[in-house]
Recover the amino acids of this structure.
């Protein structure tokens, strides 16, 4: 009988995040040698990486770091919420974020191809985690912002899970608290652009067509259509443009008004939601 204990099984599971039966089989095959068992788990897992490539990774977390005029936001995905809330996955995500910050990565491909201090690429790091954990793990998105001030905000949608929503905001002037309040607003109200000028012309035109068709269907007077259409298009802007949204903490003021009163201006933002 292999020479290992229940404590050995527990320790190897915590180290590798592998399943109970896989750990026991590896320890049996390694005759209780922990290092050899870990290696067997890695080899076995790596063989299954290709098979897992077609799976859907829709759980995971977002993580961010900001300061000194720059910020980085990373989305790391896995298959199940069980893995997402595990310490091993959280540590992996933190390692990936640290690498993204160090290399100033602004997209997933650049981050995956970058080399860690031990000589492995981030892609290889993920493949190894994929192997030991037994789930598809991927870096889905990476964003980077620079500005006079950059703040980050992470939001948990469930107390049992890591952050599912992450925001970066860059501002000029004002104070950090105002910028953080705006970041929290973005997390809650999910604007798509900073200013209305960033909305594609075809999108605005489509909104006008829909507004006009809806007004006609409702039987609105022909003479009133231009004003009605303009009002509904402005309503679209108020819903999607950050600076035109009613501010979460003071709905009677727009985000732009709050920033102006604080002597600040927003210059950019990024918002990720896991799986979004």
């Amino acid at each position: 009988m292999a020479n290992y204990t229940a404590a050995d099984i527990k320790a190897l599971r915590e180290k590798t995040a592998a399943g109970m039966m896989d750990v026991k089989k590896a320890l049996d095959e390694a005759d209780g040698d922990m290092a050899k068992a870990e290696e067997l788990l890695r080899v076995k897992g790596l063989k299954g990486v290709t098979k897992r490539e077609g799976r859907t990774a829709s759980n995971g977390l977002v993580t961010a770091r900001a300061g000194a005029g720059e910020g980085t936001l990373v989305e790391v995905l896995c298959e199940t919420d069980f893995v997402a809330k595990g310490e091993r996955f959280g540590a992996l995500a933190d390692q990936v974020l640290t690498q993204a910050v160090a290399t100033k990565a602004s997209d997933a491909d650049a981050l995956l191809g970058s080399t860690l201090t031990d000589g492995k690429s981030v892609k290889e790091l993920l493949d190894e985690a994929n192997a030991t954990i037994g789930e598809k793990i991927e870096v889905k998105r990476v964003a980077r912002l620079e500005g006079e001030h950059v703040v980050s905000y992470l939001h948990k949608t469930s107390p049992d899970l890591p952050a599912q929503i992450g925001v970066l905001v860059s501002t000029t002037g004002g104070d950090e608290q105002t910028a953080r309040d705006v970041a929290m607003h973005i997390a809650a109200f999910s604007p798509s652009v900073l200013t209305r000028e960033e909305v594609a012309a075809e999108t605005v035109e489509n909104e006008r067509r829909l507004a006009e068709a809806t007004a006609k269907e409702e039987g609105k007077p022909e003479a009133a259509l231009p004003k009605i259409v303009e009002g509904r298009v402005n309503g679209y802007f108020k819903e999607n443009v950050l600076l035109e949204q009613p501010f979460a903490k003071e709905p009677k003021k727009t985000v732009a008004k709050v920033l102006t009163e604080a002597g600040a201006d927003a210059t950019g933002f990024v918002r990720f939601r896991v799986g979004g």
About this structure: The mean pLDDT is 91. Residues 59-193+264-273 form a domain with the Tetrahydropterin Synthase; Chain A fold (CATH 3.30.479.20). The beta strands are 59-67, 70-78, 138-146, 149-155, 165-173, 264-273. The CA atoms of residues 114 and 121 lie 5 Å apart.
